[in-house]
Design a protein that fits this description.
Keywords: Membrane, Transmembrane, Transmembrane helix
Largest sheet: 5 strands, mixed
Radius of gyration: 24 Å
Distance between the termini: 44 Å
Number of helices: 17
Shape: globular
Strand content: 5-15%
Structural class: alpha/beta
Length: 495
């Protein structure tokens, strides 16, 4: 078992790099617009060309990912699994950390597991509450244990104590406590670690019926299945017909990003609800308890523990989750911003990677460079691209008076042409989002299909307000040492 934790503030220089990069870019963009506008125009054209090509590249992967997703949905994975000798030896531990969620949300999560196309006597359910909500959690847990009595191989609950040294309140610290308590249960029941698979779900997650069969099948058939995490397609569709348009556009954007990454799994990390092996969790010392982005860090823990011999296997099956939803419009927008900022706080992985990769020759130099570059480039463009495309990119044209050269005279038309090409991405996204929507509820008229298309006109706004701004916020906080705590995404009551 290894201890991976690197506390905030221990490596300030590495923490400052992302923020320095983005603010240097913004200062140069503004300064060049006033003092060297012609150079700024050339830079903007080159950047927009790069971004246009990147959008087209992204769309190709999304379309191919969608085709793979549809094909995967048509397969009876449980039937394929049953053809494998001794497949029954595999048990699934499902971790469900919760904090103040409504009873119906917890109930729905368990029903989706029970109704999976998989043997219920191979599920071990672990539901973990927090001491700060102990009374409410214990009440719900007792009702759920009675409701699902005898339906799983095991159903245990844990209560994570508050105020433990070296922790910050959040999902990661709760998961670590759950895993430590689960290990005691496993050892008591003498279950072999090599036969145990683990799925860490946000508690609002509803699994596809074939999820666990597909997971088991891949684990048993891919090369070295023990050295892999397993990533589904995350669809925020449980309440997608209820939430506001900016939220729908934002969460579909997240889904499309994840689908494109699944087609390039050699570079991806785990995100949100996903699966892994129990042996890996034990080997890395379980989830780290003092950070926000535990879902992606656990992949890095495995990658470093096994000296680069660790990867993500795409499942190409969905899990269905809740989009953020507040009590009113502005509360919902605030919740969306905080969620995006929490995701952007994945910038916290850079110091960890640089310290752990430094001098580790057991991981190839190419792999180390690739992961560091992808982390820096991804966080940098998340914060800067919308700003340069939709705001700062227009500044030199307002300043520049002399447009006598052909380049400067034609540059607005060049940019407009590239934007029109990039707009094709909006139409593709709108089309795919319609195909991914759940059945229209009875309280929504047919006109809502039109709304679901027109809402994509908000993409530039969401790209800025709920993309660049929270990313800038997160990276600036990291740069100045104002560290972010875990913000729980509120889940509204279900009817």
């Amino acid at each position: 078992m290894q201890e991976n934790t690197i506390p905030y503030g221990k490596h300030r220089f590495w923490e400052m790099i992302p923020g320095i990069l983005i603010w240097t870019t913004f200062i140069l963009a503004v300064g060049m617009s006033f003092f060297a506008p012609a150079i700024a125009v050339v830079f903007i054209i080159i950047f927009d060309l790069y971004w246009t090509l990147r959008v087209l590249y992204f769309l190709i992967f999304v379309v191919f990912a969608y085709r793979t997703y549809k094909k995967t949905m048509l397969v009876d994975w449980y039937a394929k699994l049953q053809k494998i000798k001794n497949w029954e030896r595999v048990y699934h531990i499902v971790l469900l950390p919760t904090y103040k969620e409504d009873y119906q949300i917890l109930y729905d999560a368990l029903v989706s597991i029970r109704e999976s196309n998989y043997r219920n006597d191979r599920f071990i359910i672990v539901m973990g509450g927090e001491e700060a909500d102990e009374k409410n959690f214990i009440n719900y847990a007792e009702k759920l244990k009675e409701e699902f009595k005898g339906q799983f191989a095991g159903f245990t609950t844990t209560v994570h104590p508050k105020g433990l040294k070296g922790e910050i309140p959040g999902k990661g610290s709760n998961l670590k406590w759950m895993e430590q308590e689960t290990q005691k249960w496993i050892d008591k029941n003498k279950l072999p670690y090599k036969d145990l698979l683990v799925t860490a779900f946000d508690v609002d997650t509803v699994a596809h019926p074939q999820y666990f069969a597909r997971f088991s099948y891949l684990f048993l058939t891919v090369k070295d299945g023990a050295h892999a995490s397993y990533q589904p397609v995350v669809l925020y569709s449980n309440n997608v017909w209820k939430v506001q348009a900016p939220i729908r556009v934002s969460v579909f954007g997240t889904t499309f990003w994840l689908m494109s990454e699944l087609m390039r799994s050699d570079r991806m990390w785990t995100f949100s609800s996903h699966s892994m092996t129990w042996q890996m969790l034990v080997d890395v010392g379980f989830h780290e308890p003092n950070l926000v982005s535990e879902d992606s860090r656990i992949f890095l823990q495995g990658f470093i523990r096994y000296n680069g011999d660790y990867r993500v296997e795409p499942l190409f099956l969905p899990v269905y989750m809740d989009a953020v939803e507040g009590v009113n419009y502005w509360d919902s927008m605030k919740a969306l911003y905080k969620q995006q900022r929490r995701w952007a706080w994945g910038v916290e992985h850079l110091p960890y990677m640089l310290e752990r990769f430094k001098g580790n020759k057991d991981i190839s130099l190419w792999k180390r460079m690739k992961y560091v570059f992808n982390q820096i480039e991804g966080m940098y463009t998340w914060a800067t691209a919308p700003m340069l495309i939709f705001l700062l990119g227009y500044l030199p044209f307002f300043v520049l008076q002399d447009t006598s050269t052909a380049l400067l005279a034609n540059s607005p038309f060049t940019l407009q042409y590239m934007m029109e090409i990039a707009t094709a991405g909006v139409f593709v996204s709108a089309s795919l989002s319609l195909w991914l929507l759940p059945k229209r509820p009875k309280d929504r008229s047919r006109w809502w299909w039109l709304i679901m298309i027109l809402q994509w006109a908000l993409l530039p706004v969401t790209f800025l307000v709920f993309g660049a701004f929270p990313a800038i916020d997160a990276q600036t906080r990291m740069m100045i040492g104002k560290y972010l705590g875990f913000n729980v995404t509120e889940k509204r009551k279900r009817g």
